[in-house]
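User: Show me an example of a complex going from sequences to structure tokens.

Assistant: Sure. Here are the input components:
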Amino acid sequence: MQCPKCHAPMHTYNRNGVQIEQCSGCRGIFLDYGELESLTRMESQWGGGPAVPPPPAAPQYPAAPGGPAWGAPQHGGGHYGGHGGHGGHHRNRGFGHMLFSS
Amino acid sequence: MTAHPLLTELTLRARTEAHSHKQSACPCGAATLADRPDATVVRHADTVAKAHAPDTAPAELTPRLATAAHLPGILLPPLGRTPVDLHGRLVTFWPYGEPVDPENPDSAPWEAAATLLARLHRTPAPPGLPPMRGPAKAALAVARLLAATRQRPATHVLRAWRTLPAWARAETPMSDTTTLCHGDLHLGQLVRHPVPDGPWHLIDVDDLGVGEPAWDLARPAAWYACGLLSPDDWSRFLGAYRAAGGPAVPADGDPWPALDVAARALTVQTAARAIVKAAEADRALDDVEQAVVDACDRMGSAPPQLAGGFAK
């Protein structure tokens, strides 16, 4: 799925049996219905035990080059990369005509 | 392509010019490379003849041609320094160069293009060179849009245009009157010379002049902003420009405050042309054209004075 905030792809992690999605771009976390309660319940069960390890830090993509405020929504989140399947964008669409004309 | 008198005569002139400096037997490969209202370009073997736009002034084309002749490592040098008159059109002659292959995005010479631009921008402009024509061409595209339609989606494009500063709309002169600029950079403006694997050169001097160098970076910037150019290719282009000491953007940090106005203007120009073209062909915008129009729409909620902000 895509992050509703920055539109980067979200990756699924398993935390204590609860599936959570974390954005590869802004690191925001998406919880499905009931997942917050599951996590809270587990936290209370653990009591003063070791802290739950946080989800992994954002992967070290090559620095995203940024963009203007009016840029296409996919900016800022590793949306490209040649894997395809993200919203139908592919590398340099329009290459054959628009990039060659005034 | 129908052979009108100019095209027929231009083809003949290219042949004559090609044979005048070819010692060995000429394979005589001839082709029409472009035949548009603003330019007719034909090739004969290793020679290209270009008939410039009907309103081209000799007093402006001649210093532009001389600039190309002076910078052979950056601009493709012309064959001859003086345009000739043909059916009321100015004609120039050039060696044939190998263009970028539109079928092969991986072959696009982003680093070479950026390096050539940086070197051009660092070259002192020869005296007497007219202003770079980028903003004037953007204004022309918008005027044509206004003449064709004021219905949506043209409204988005016109609104974005009105938020631009006067210089970017060619209503006042550019403040930079010393930096040498190409004025119309896109991937069709690069050729390898000598063919087939000589170094890349910039071609097309019609818009060359002094002005705001960010304009030359702004088309790739606009493609990237519209989602048409990958972050990787944009980074290659920008990185090479910076590595070559190009003056249009700061050496590091956020380049967008320097690029924003010109990238907006070229997005507007591209969108205006796309809408007119689609209207003339009585067809809908394709997805690439729509992406450019959508970017104009988004400009409405992010005025240029906030340039440099990042989308949250």
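The lines above are the inputs; the final block is the predicted structure for all two components together. The radius of gyration of chain B is 20 Å.
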